[in-house]
Structures are given as C-alpha cells and as structure tokens.
Design goal:
This is VWA domain-containing protein. It comes from Flavobacterium cupreum. The protein is α/β, with parallel strands linked by helices. It is about 50% helix and about 15% strand. The chain has one domain (about 40-185, about 235-295): Rossmann fold, CATH 3.40.50. It has nine helices and nine strands. The strands form two sheets. The chain has a six-stranded mixed beta sheet, sandwiched between helices.
Length: about 300
C-alpha cells in the first residue's frame, strides 16, 4: 500500500511540475507579446534638408528650425535608449537609422549617416554602448545640419519617392515595431519627381495651394469634392507607424496648415499606414512628451 501511495504521490508531483513548466513557458511567451518593452523596435528618421532649415529664407528668432530638429532627434534617441534599457539583454534586437532622400552631395554627411545606423542585439549590447547612443546621435546629427547650412545649397527633399521606392525595403522589418519619424515642414517638392494625375500630385507648395483655390474657408469641401491629394506611393503600409514633426505653413494663408495636414492624412490613410500623427513645429521642450508617448506608450 505504501508503494502505491508513493507512486501516486510521485506521479502527482511530476504532473504538477510538468503543468507548471508548461504554464511558465506559456506565461513567458504571453509576457513577451503583451509587454511592449519586449518588442523589437526598428526606428527610422527621415530628414528633410531642404531650404526649410535655411537661416536666410526661414529665420526664427525664438529657435531656428534646424535646432528644433536636433531637439526632436534627441527625444527620439532618448526614447529608443529608454526602450532598450527596459529590456532584458537576451530580448534586445533593435535598430535605429537615419535617412535622407536624395542623399546629400557632401560625402561627409553620408559617412556620418552610416555611423548613425545602430543595430543592437544580445551579442553586442553593453552598458557602454547603451550609454553612448544619445551623445553619439546628438554630436553626429549636429554635424549633418552644420554641413548642410554651411553648404547652403538646398536640393530639396524627395519624400514622395522615399515612400515609393525605399520605405518598404529600408524601414519595415518583419517581427519588429516599425516607426518612421519624418522631420519636415509638410511641403513636398522635388524637381525630378513632379507628377500629376487629375488633382493628385507628388508635390504640394504654397503656390499650388493658392492657384488651386485651397486658401479659402471652403478648402475642405473643394479638396474632397475635386479629390485633391498626393498620388499613392504604396498600397499596404500596415506594418508601419509614422510620426511627422515640424509642419510649418506659410504665414499668408490661415488655412494652409489644415490643408497640409489633410493632404498627409489622406495619403497615409490610403496607403494603410498602421498609425500616424502629424505635428506642427513646436519647441523641443513642448514636443518631447508627444515624441516619447508615440514611441514608448502608443502600442498599436
């Protein structure tokens, strides 16, 4: 009888242990999927180095626009490192990178951007590396803007083509949370990418808005009725989140900011972007919470 009891007890202990093991595996898997910190982040920054940052053409006595950009980049970088530090080493498999389109002619800028492609995983993650990311990003991005301002030859920014030809290959990675942060004033224009299909275009400028009568209180009705907007540059970006920072409309049209945001909203919606926000060019101190919330708290 004792032997039977021993056997039953041992069987029960093994069954419970096996069950607990299965449950702990299941719980660990669930915690990884439910815990945002366990996600792998793939963050891309797209810089508009057009004349929007020109000190002569667009001066701002409160804070120059390139300085605002640097403040926004600092918040993105700090959010990325905060995310990394919230993970266990074995969970880390994250990326942050920086793009321009077109690539600047200055070879120094392109070599700097190479240094800003950070790929960090369990094999190279170290306290020193994590602690160096923010200062590295701040120093290197300052050099990029200094070089662009010194060169003073602003070739424009081809954001439309970036979405058309590069965003899927360069900014979207399977199994990661893909975030694209675009620093731009919201206007789009590039000499080599001017296309028009009825009232759909690859560009939007103050002159275009004025010439097409989108500078009156009836702009929204006209935009919808006559189908103004950007030409689609992709059909399914459902694995991408986009944060646009720096919208800065001209001062002659009180409706211009709304028109710009409507264009971008329509474009992202039609391309099935998973989640997006479009923000005006505020001071970095005012934008910091918006950026951190988007990157660290908005799990969509």
């Amino acid at each position: 009888m004792k032997n039977v009891l021993k056997t039953l007890t041992l069987s029960l202990v093994l069954a419970v242990a096996f069950s607990c093991g299965k449950d702990s595996d299941k719980n660990e898997k669930e915690s990884v999927t439910k815990n945002p910190a366990a996600e792998n982040y793939n963050i891309s920054l797209l810089l508009d180095l057009s004349d929007r940052i020109s000190l002569e053409k667009n001066p701002n006595p409160t804070m120059e626009y390139y300085q605002r950009d640097l403040g926004y980049i600092k918040s993105v970088s700090e959010s990325f490192t905060q995310h990394l530090k919230s993970k266990r080493i074995r969970q880390i498999n994250d990326k942050m990178q920086l793009f321009f389109n077109p690539e600047p002619k200055d070879p120094e800028i392109n070599s700097i951007s190479e240094k800003l492609k950070i790929v960090i995983d369990k094999d190279n993650a170290s306290k020193d590396l994590l602690n160096s990311i923010n200062s590295n990003y701040a120093a290197q991005t300052s050099k990029i803007y200094e070089s662009a301002l010194k060169d003073n030859n602003f070739v424009g920014s081809d954001i439309w083509s970036f979405f058309d030809a590069k965003v899927k290959d360069q900014c979207i990675q399977s199994g990661a949370r893909n975030i694209l942060v675009i620093l731009t004033d919201g206007y789009m224009y590039y000499d080599s990418t001017i296309m028009k299909e009825a009232n759909r275009t690859t560009f939007i400028t103050p002159d275009f808005i004025r010439k097409n009568g989108l500078n009156t209180k009836d702009w929204e009705q006209k935009l919808q009725k006559e189908d103004f907007g950007f030409i689609k540059a992709g059909d399914d970006l459902s694995n991408l989140e986009v944060l646009v920072l720096g919208i800065n409309p001209g001062k002659n049209n009180p409706y211009e900011e709304k028109v710009i945001k409507a264009y971008w909203t329509k474009w992202f919606t039609e391309m099935k972007v998973k989640h997006f926000e479009i923000k005006s060019a505020g001071l970095p101190s005012d934008m910091e919470k918006i950026i951190r919330d988007f990157i660290l708290e908005n799990q969509h």
